Amino acid sequence: MAELSGRCLCGGVRFKVNGEILSAGHCHCESCRRATSSPVTTVFTVRRSDAEIGGSLRFYASSPGVKRGFCRNCGSPMSFQTDERPNEMDFYVASLNDGLHVEIHEHWHWDERVDWLNVTDDLPKGS
């Protein structure tokens, strides 16, 4: 069972997770890259009922059935939710206060990766 907490850059949004991490991976999709201005985004998934979020969280509907949470003050990306997984929520591993040791299991959307980033791990690389 995970007991994790995290926050945005300014501290205006904080979250706590008390429950099992359902999955964790590196996402290479174009949408995540643009939302975070990063070549890859690393997230972990939990049950929504195991997560508490407080503060100045705003949402952006980045595509049909998807909303991305971000801090209204500093703009830090905080969460990802999709209608395809209505009982789950993703948080960004890099926003954790402690727990940067979350075990990553795979790469998602490998076919959308940037060609200039050299990834040399042995994790499964799916689409």
UniProtKB/TrEMBL annotation:
Keywords: Lyase, Metal-binding, Zinc. Residues 4-111 form the CENP-V/GFA domain. InterPro entries: CENP-V/GFA (IPR006913), Mss4-like_sf (IPR011057). Pfam families: GFA. Signal peptide: none annotated. The keyword Lyase applies. The keyword Metal-binding applies. It comes from the Bacteria. PROSITE patterns: CENP_V_GFA (PS51891). Belongs to the Gfa family. This is GFA family protein.
